[in-house]
Amino acid sequence: MRGDRGERAYSLIELVVVLALVGILLSMAVYGIRLAAAREEVDGWVRGVAADLSSGQQDAITRRVNVRATFLDHTYTIAVVGGATLRQEILPGHITFGSPQQQVTFDRRGVPSAPLTLTVSSTSTGRSYTIQVAGGTGRVSYIEQ
Q1: How far apart are CA 55 and CA 62, in angstroms?
Q2: For the domain 8-144, what is the CATH code?
Q3: Which of the 8 DSSP states describes residue 98?
Q4: Which DSSP string corresponds to 37-87?
Q5: Which tens digit of pLDDT belongs to each residue from 72-81?
Q6: What is the distance between the alpha carbons of residues 70 and 61, in angstroms, rounded to a whole number?
Q7: Which of 86, 98, 138, 145 would give a disulfide with 128, using CB separation of 3.0 to 4.6 Å?
């Protein structure tokens, strides 16, 4: 009867092959999306740390106090020297600061005590960034390595 009306249909094997190909393409897309999300997470943390450093510098000028930023493996703290904590963050487990402990202190004019070079790395993406605080000016910048 099928030939009488001119209908054509797909065989079960053709449908299975098409579904397998769609499944492979979807799994590759999911992997790519997860990797992109991890890269964006690292980028966001680097931008956030740089913004917090700039904010700490501005707080030093506004409040006319010394402000210290201290960086450990997975945490950082920005606080008034001998006073209140302004910002404290814990990074995700796959993101670390390169050196065991680093710090920079901004004086009342926003000038850093010394230049700071801070490496931020992600074990999940393999990306590394360098955050720099320029001596003399306190300009905060970051670049991908």
Answers
A1: 10
A2: 3.55.40.10
A3: S
A4: HHHHHHHHHHHHHHHHHHHHHHHHHHHTS-EEEEE-SSEEEEEETTS-EEE
A5: 989 999 999 9
A6: 18
A7: 145
Q: What is the DSSP letter of 123?
A: T
3-class DSSP assignment, residue 28 = helix
Give the C-alpha separation, 59 to 74, whole Å.
Answer: 23
Give the integer Cα–Cα distance in Å for 106 and 103. Answer: 10
Domain boundaries, the chain: 8-144
Q: Give tens-digit pLDDT for 14-51.
A: 999 999 999 999 999 888 898 888 889 999 999 999 99
Longest dimension (CA), the chain: 92
Residue 10 CB coordination number (10 Å): 9
The span from the CA of 64 to the CA of 21, in Å, is 64
Quick one: tokens of 56?
Answer: 């700490």
In this structure, are residues 92 and 41 in contact, taking their beta carbons and an 8 Å threshold?
yes
Contact (Cβ atoms closer than 8 angstroms) between residue 117 and residue 130? yes
